[in-house]
Amino acid sequence: MGILAWIIIGLLAGAIAKALMPGRDPGGVIVTMIIGILGGLLGGWLGKVIFHVHSIKGFFHLSTWIAAIVGSLILLVIYRVVTDRRRA
């Protein structure tokens, strides 16, 4: 997959993760995209380590999207914990 595909997946996976986990986030579109891209990488790595599968196969594969969304949810939780501590 090219860099443009990663950006699109990142933006959509980050937006889906924020929709699944509503709440106030200090980040905008750029933070959502970064969380989504890093979440896709994290989800792919976790799928490889835990389930011994190559979960990032292509743009239209369901496993790619599931890995990106799950990884984005994990990073979104970490992001919220870190930013809540800074505000307090």
Entry summary:
By secondary structure, the chain is mainly alpha-helical. Helix content is 76%, strand content 0%. The protein has helices at 3-20, 29-51, 62-87.
Overview of the structural elements:
The protein has 88 residues and is mainly α. The protein has one domain (3-87). Helix content is 76%, strand content 0%. The protein is built from three helices and no strands. Helix 1 (3-20) crosses helix 2 (29-51). The mean pLDDT is 80.
SSE inventory with pairings:
Layout: H1 3-20, H2 29-51, H3 62-87
Helix pairs in contact: 1-2, 1-3, 2-3
Q: Please bin the fraction of helical residues.
A: over 70%
- Briefly note the structural class of the backbone: mainly alpha
Overall residue-averaged pLDDT value: 80
Oligomer: single chain
Largest sheet: none
Instruction: Encode the helix/strand succession as letters.
Output: HHH
Number of strands: 0
- Note the overall shape: globular
Count of helical segments?
Answer: 3
